[in-house]
Write a structure and sequence with these properties.
The chain is mainly alpha-helical. It has one domain. The chain is built from six helices and no strands. The longest helix is centred in the N-terminal third of the chain and has 33 residues. It is globular and about 50 Å long.
Length: about 150
C-alpha cells in the first residue's frame, strides 16, 4: 500500500505544492519520503506542462469565444515579476503563490527554454520542498513548546 501513499503525495504536489507535505503527514510517510515525492510531483507537472504548453495555448485560443483582455491585474503582476527577476523569480514564487502548473505556464508563455525551466524549477522544488516539509512535520512540536492547545498533536 506504500505505492498509494507515494502517489497521493505526488498527485497532491502536482496540483498544489504545499499539498504534498500535508498529504505526506496525513498518510504517515517519513519527512524524507514526503520531501522526495513532493519534489517529484512538482517536476512531473513542470515536465507535462512544458511539453504540452504550446499546444494547450493553441487549444485554449481556439476554444475561446472572445478575445482575452491583454492587460489585467494578473498579467501586469506576471510581467512585473518577469521584468524584475526573470525565470528565477517565477521559480521562486511558484511553490509559494503559484501552482506548479501556473508557474510553468507563466514560464512557457515568456518563451523560456525548457532546460532553464527544468533547472530553476527543480532547485526551487528542492529548497521549498524541504522548507515546507520540515515546517509541516515540526508544527505540532512547535505548538506544544509555545503553549499551543494540542490541536495539531497526533
Amino acid at each position: 500500500m506504500e505505492v498509494a501513499k507515494y502517489l497521493s503525495v505526488l498527485v497532491a504536489s502536482m496540483l498544489k505544492f504545499v499539498g504534498g507535505p500535508v498529504t505526506g503527514v496525513a498518510v504517515g510517510l517519513t519527512w524524507v519520503e514526503t520531501w522526495l515525492f513532493t519534489v517529484a510531483g512538482m517536476m512531473v507537472s513542470v515536465v507535462l506542462v512544458t511539453y504540452t504548453g504550446a499546444g494547450l495555448q493553441l487549444l485554449l485560443a481556439r476554444l475561446r469565444r472572445t478575445k482575452p483582455k491583454r492587460f489585467t491585474p494578473r498579467t501586469r503582476l506576471a510581467v512585473k515579476v518577469w521584468k524584475r527577476a526573470g525565470m528565477l523569480g517565477i521559480a521562486f514564487l511558484t511553490p509559494l503563490l503559484l501552482t506548479p502548473i501556473g508557474g510553468t505556464i507563466l514560464a512557457v508563455s515568456f518563451k523560456v527554454s525548457r532546460s532553464l525551466i527544468f533547472g530553476y524549477m527543480l532547485i526551487s522544488a528542492l529548497v521549498w520542498g524541504i522548507i515546507f516539509t520540515l515546517a509541516i512535520y515540526e508544527l505540532p512540536e512547535l505548538f506544544s513548546r509555545f503553549g499551543g492547545n494540542g490541536i495539531l498533536r497526533k
